[in-house]
Known about the structure:
This protein is about 80% helix and about 0% strand. With about 55 residues, it is an all-alpha fold.
Amino acid sequence: xxxxxxxxxxxxLATVALVLMVVVTGGVVYLTAADWxxxxxxxxxxxxxxxxxxx
Length: 55
């Protein structure tokens, strides 16, 4: 009975660890994408407007 309880506890802990890893990884990906998007937007806002060539 103790072995079953120990195995169940290990399974629960492993599942919780996996869920936390997925949440943390998703957060890192989101923050990286948001930073990249904001950096690109700031760069475009600072750049002078492009002039169109006259034909």
